[in-house]
Specification:
The protein is of the alpha+beta class. Helix content is about 35%, strand content about 25%. Helix 2 runs parallel beside helix 3 (about 70-85) and helix 3 packs antiparallel against helix 4 (about 145-155).
Length: about 180
């Protein structure tokens, strides 16, 4: 039921973003707060999979003008994918840092990785880099498309990096 609710919520959100009817509740907030909410949202899944989650909040608070609920949703989606595509007992690292005029959120895992030709395509609707792998864990290919659209609504960008299959993945979000 939880999985179905999440899928339906993601579909509704992607529909709102696509049609331009989503309204961001913008304010200035500490990015750490959004990270903390996202970590709490996925903690049970991390523990169920026996993963080790390392959170590096950075030395100083990073202040962002945006919708803290939507940014937390972005981070939660990235963490959920890391949990989903990392074999049990793996490691996931979430870090925050300042880089020029951007706040950078990076989610890295020791998971199954992404083939190079798929790195840009994973952010397209209904795209899955690993069809046939981990079939019980697969979603519909909506989460990363939603991540990209929400990040872009905040004036930011997101990219994926992986050294290939079996080498883990790093998803990096940059927000002004």
């Amino acid at each position: 039921v939880d999985h179905m609710v999440r899928l339906i919520d993601d579909l509704l959100d992607i529909s709102r973003v696509t049609t331009g009817t989503i309204v961001l509740q913008r304010r200035t907030f500490a990015l750490r707060d959004a990270v903390q909410a996202a970590v709490e949202a996925v903690r049970a899944a991390v523990e169920d999979a026996g993963h080790r989650l390392h959170v590096e909040p950075g030395a100083h608070p990073l202040w962002v003008d945006g919708d803290p609920v939507r940014i937390s949703q972005v981070i939660s989606n990235l963490l959920t994918n890391a949990v989903r595509y990392t074999p049990d007992g793996g490691e996931i690292r979430l870090s925050l840092r300042a880089e020029a005029d951007s706040a950078v959120i990076a989610v890295s895992d020791t998971g199954i990785g992404i083939p190079a030709p798929m790195l840009d395509a994973v952010f397209d609707m209904f795209t899955q880099a690993h069809r046939g792998q981990l079939p019980a864990q697969q979603g519909l290919g909506i989460g990363l498309a939603l991540v990209r659209r929400l990040v872009e609504l905040h004036g930011g960008s997101v990219d994926a990096a992986s050294d290939g299959e079996g080498c883990g993945t790093t998803m990096t979000v940059r927000l002004p």
